[in-house]
Structure formats: structure tokens, C-alpha cells
Write a structure and sequence with these properties.
This protein has 256 residues and is α/β, with parallel strands linked by helices. The protein has nine helices and seven strands, in the order βαβαβαβαβααβαααβ. The chain has a single domain, classed as Rossmann fold (3-Layer(aba) Sandwich). The chain binds nicotinamide-adenine-dinucleotide (NAD).
Amino acid sequence: MAGSWGLDGEAAFITGVGGMGRAGALAFAEEGIPVAVTDVNLSIAETTAALVAEKGGKALPMQLDVRDSAQVQEVMAKATAELGPLDYLFNTAGIGHYGPLVEMSNEDWSRMVEVCLTGTFYTCRTLLPAMIARGRGAIVNISSMFGQTGQANMVHYSAAKAGVMGLTKALAREMAEHGIRVNSIAPGPIDTPLWRRGLEGKDLDNLIEERRQPVPMKRVGHISEIADAMMYLMSPTSSYVTGQILHVGGGEVTVT
Ligand SMILES: NC(=O)c1ccc[n+]([C@@H]2O[C@H](COP(=O)([O-])OP(=O)(O)OC[C@H]3O[C@@H](n4cnc5c(N)ncnc54)[C@H](O)[C@@H]3O)[C@@H](O)[C@H]2O)c1
């Protein structure tokens, strides 16, 4: 049963399905698109697959660490064999880590860059030959408003997310002639498990209050608002849109 976005592709692949990725999987299910739901934590992938099944959708849960290029190849091959051509790629896998630069270890830096940026490179590189062969495809990479504004105590994260923005723009230009569109969503504060972990040990209500203040809309966002933006960028509704960074953050970033 086709959903309201008019997606006409075969199957989707998502990395990181705890928060935004989970909302994305449910949105694909509503469109009748089978979806591979992958996460470094298999139980998160299985929970997401169960939620998709509850909606009457088809999801294939798989364990995947996006830092491992061989595993990316293996898991994408399995997903293609079971679900059909992967016409949609939604990269959301990410981690949180906070601290001043002078206290940041080599490992802190590498881990952040590998999960948030290199993982996106691996999934794109692995899937693109099949997309090019089909002459179609849409990729949405989650970056962050901090990739543009920068954020104190998150230098590695800000750098990795700026990298995702650059990767997205360059790849969009490279893939345009193949009928493949590549865009990025730069979220502002969105209420997800990762976002809440960043507030751990603090007074949650006060922090939510504090964090919503610089947002012109005076609230944090919901994962369904990311899923809607993702669906727009995946769907034929955005057929002339590529290489763009879509800020979904209540107006906190307005100059791009
Ligand atoms: N929540 C926010 O406010 C916010 C704002 C801007 C950007 N983001 C970005 O949005 C994306 C999604 O984050 P979320 O808020 O939904 O967080 P989340 O923690 O709820 O989901 C991220 C998922 O990625 C998985 N993951 C972590 N390392 C992985 C790896 N090596 N391989 C595969 N999966 C891995 C985690 O297990 C988790 O389920 C992240 O890239 C994050 O940086 C979040």
C-alpha cells in the first residue's frame, strides 16, 4: 500500500535506529517500503523491526558497526538479497561525547570521526554502484546544526558533522548525472535517547527549559519532524533538490 509521499522505489537502508532512524523506519513502513534497520546494538535494531512489524511493515534487523567497511559490505549485500534494490539510504548512526579539546584523547577524536563521518562514507561507497547501475537513488545524511555553528566542548562532533555536510554537497554534484540525489538534514535539539544522555546527571527539566530558550520556536523537536523532513528529501516531491543542508531546528539556524 503506497503512502502519502508517493515513494516509488524498492527498499531502504538505515544506520542507527534508536531515535531518528527509528522514526525514519516507521515512516518507510507507512509508505509500504521494506527497510533494513541496522545498529551497532542489535537489540535496538530488533526493537525497531518489531515496531515496524506492528505497523504492518517489513523490516530486516541487523547488527552493524558503521566503522567496519567489510561489515558494511556484508550487511548491505544481505539486505539487498532479502529486500531487493536499496533505493534509499538514511545515515543516522551517531554518538555523543563531550569535553574540552585539551582533554580530548586520540581515541575520543577518532571514534567520533569514524562513527559520524567515515561510516557515512562507507555506506555511500558501498551502495552507490548499485544505485548508479539503476540510475536512481536518494541519500539523506544526518549532520547537525553544530556542524555549521560549532559547539564548545564538542569540537570533534562539530568537525565530523561539518564533514558530513561537505561530503553531502560534493557527492550530490558527483551523483547528479546518475539520477541520484544526496541531501543532509541538520537537526537542532531533538528529543531522542542520545540527546537525553547528553543531559545525564543534570536536572532534566531545567536543562530542557534552558535548551529551548535560544530556539525561536521555544521548544525541542520531535523525531517525527525529522522523519517528515527525511521523507520529503527521499520522495519525488523534492525531485529538483540535491546537495542541500536542511536545518530542522525551530529556526535556531537561519543563515546558511
Ligand atoms: N538528538 C539531537 O538533538 C541531535 C541533534 C543534531 C544531530 N543529531 C544526530 O542525529 C543522529 C541520530 O541521533 P539520535 O539523536 O537519533 O540518537 P540515538 O542515540 O537515539 O540514535 C543513534 C543510534 O546510532 C547507533 N550507533 C552508535 N554508534 C554506532 C555505530 N558505530 N554503528 C552503527 N550504529 C551506531 C546507536 O546505537 C543509536 O541507536 C546522530 O548522528 C546525531 O549525531 C542529533
